[in-house]
Automatic annotation (TrEMBL):
Any single biological process term in GO: aromatic amino acid family biosynthetic process
Active-site residues per Swiss-Prot or TrEMBL entry: 22, 99
Residues binding substrate, per UniProt: 73, 86, 100-101, 110
Pathway where it operates: Metabolic intermediate biosynthesis; chorismate biosynthesis; chorismate from D-erythrose 4-phosphate and phosphoenolpyruvate: step 3/7
Name of this chain's protein: 3-dehydroquinate dehydratase
Positions bearing the site annotation: Transition state stabilizer: 17
Annotated CDD domains: DHQase_II (cd00466)
Keyword vocabulary terms for this entry: Amino-acid biosynthesis, Aromatic amino acid biosynthesis, Lyase
Enzyme Commission number(s) from the entry: 4.2.1.10
Function: Catalyzes a trans-dehydration via an enolate intermediate.
Listed HAMAP family: AroQ (MF_00169)
Domain of life per record: Bacteria
InterPro entries noted in UniProt: DHquinase_II (IPR001874), DHquinase_II_CS (IPR018509), DHquinase_II_sf (IPR036441)
Amino acid sequence: TTVLLLNGPNLGILGDREPEIYGYDTVDDIAKAVAEEVAEAGWEVVPIQDDHEGNLVQAVHAHRKSTVGAIVNPGALMMAGWSLRDALAAYPAPWIEVHLSNVWAREQFRHESILAPLAGGVVVGLGAFGYRLAARALLHLCDAQPA
Ligand code: DQA
């Protein structure tokens, strides 16, 4: 049983990217944290970070049938990623949107996510810990049992 972890544009340099806003954890640290959470149910994670929307769209397609849920930090595609939105609309399993920073405490242009209406839930402003919460939310939504 597998969960898809998608991190969008500019998240590959996490740890080094405006750490006062995004923290010091890297995408690899985050993938490990998610893997740790889902391992409780004997599940695995497929972690993908990509700066290109088309590649994220293809990743959603490629894992549509093989994953039971997804965790998605779309980065700035939250504001304008219409094709990612359509890909996620066709994704049959529950998925959780995550933002490290509290987007509502920041610039106005970050206040609305075009993806969030499709998400099973949204975790915002809790840093890398938010991904752990999202993983736990997926276990809950899928009614996962301890391994
Ligand atoms: C972000 C918030 C977005 O507004 C921003 O464009 C990012 C990161 C976050 O995790 O806080 O790239 O998704």
